[in-house]
Amino acid sequence: MEVTNVFFPGYSIASGLSTYEKLGEVCAKYGKKAVVIGGEHALNAMRPVLTEAVKGTNIEIVGFEWYGGVASYENGERLLGLDTVKEADMIFACGGGKAIDTCKYVSMQSGKPFFTFPTIAATCAATTAIAVMYYPNGVQKDVFVGPRPTSHCFINLEVIANAPEVYLWAGIGDTLAKYTEVPFSARGLQLAHRDELAVVMSEMTGTPLLKYGTKAMQDVKNHQSSFELEQVVLAIILTTGLVSYLIDVNLNSGMAHALFYGMTVLPQIEERHLHGEVVSYGVLCMLMMDKQMDELEKIYKFMKSINLPTKLADIEVKEDELEPVLDSAITKYDIDVSPYKITKELMKQAILDLEEYNKTH
Length: 361
Fold this sequence. Notes:
By secondary structure, this protein is an alpha/beta fold. It contains 15 helices and eight strands. The strands form three sheets. Strands 3-2-4-5 form a four-stranded parallel beta sheet, with helices on both faces. A two-stranded parallel ribbon has the order 1-8. The chain is globular. The mean pLDDT is 95.
């Protein structure tokens, strides 16, 4: 029998500095020096917050470092060579998914523990061990799974409520994929306990979105923390991250993500569209392919209510651009395990059928 090792991340969620009241206690056993690595906007937002948060603790911040703009092995290696990273006992990963995923690589290669401080709720990167890596030009390269997820995730709703609303919007889109892809990929399989647990938990990735998502989007537009925002943020960052971490990597995604990664061959996708935004479009394509028409109608209506993309034009893609997209998508591991073989032809037909569906709904 294979050994199963599961390490759950802890989390703190509040609004404002109270989010970090346990920071010193949580981090104390890992050392005294931390380096903060993140995106430019995240570092600007979190520098004063974290500087204040470590006061009165034994934690010293030895530097704030930009992650490089792309989650790439090249940026990871650059960071590993910095004196501040070498000096630190732990890594504070700050920002969005690409910054945090880069920190996972740095953590894995250096052996230093990492803690996450998401400044947006666009993906589940802050609580899962999975990292999506890209070539330096922004085209998706591969995925790796680290030995464990973050030791603790600090979620400050005030910071997230003051981030551009587009990130929560994209996070909702990405989380709709977890809600639909995991049960689809796992359908008909005999599952290990952790995989079965993840499938059951996947229901709680989507239910809060459909119930509270519209209100949460309005609250972010008004820069307000709220119960509804908390439920949606936890669904995006925590529940989805736990599902991603628990489920076998081959069951963790499906056609929606394969289609997104295929779309990254188009420059307009990388330049002007967010991961979760495009993935949500792929969710509708997958549901159309699988003829889950009741689920399609429910999610389509919700997506329309918050203006997530439902057709090619919404993501600036034309039908005559689909060939290289599909050629790339069909090679992705995301569709290796499915209830039936997903072909290029099935993908294309689902896209065309969804275009027709948009004309009458």
